[in-house]
Amino acid sequence: MRFGSSEASCTSCHQLYAASDLDRYLWCPNCRKQLERRGTKVGRAVGVVASAGLAAYLVVEVHPSARFVAIYLLLLVMTYTLTSRIARAVVQGFYRSRALGGVVETENPE
pTM (2 decimals)? Predict the structure, then answer.
């Protein structure tokens, strides 16, 4: 992107857009939506698996008493929330870096 130009290409799909439509990583709105959808799907799946694993551990090993059920449920909700957010951020970072890595071209020194 040149200084003062009003158009720039998306880092992911390489289509030209107005520079004001791109985010700080130079991704267009369509690619950004796709990235968010992908990250959210994977994040939710990881959150469900982590929460199910923790629930199985609690039932099999800890044998929770009825007195502390609310605390265990809160623990499961927190596990789902944190792991899904972390996984979503990791997946989005992975796809962004993969798209950025594909743009760089090396010259042959011959």
Answer: 0.78
Number of domains the chain is built from: 1
The CA distances from residue 104 to 11, 75, 97, 107, in Å, are 11, 44, 11, 10
Report how far apart, in Å, the C-alpha atoms of 35 and of each of 21, 38, 81, 89, 103 are: 16, 5, 19, 10, 17
Is 13 contained in some domain? no
Question: Which tokens go with 70?
Answer: 């609310």
For 15-71, write each residue's pLDDT tens digit.
999 989 999 888 999 999 999 999 999 999 999 999 999 999 999 999 988 999 999
Which secondary-structure segment (H or E) carries 45?
helix 29-57
In a domain, 75, yes or no: yes
Domain membership of residue 16 (yes or no) is no
CA distance 89 to 98: 14
Within a domain: residue 7? no
DSSP SS3 for 15? coil
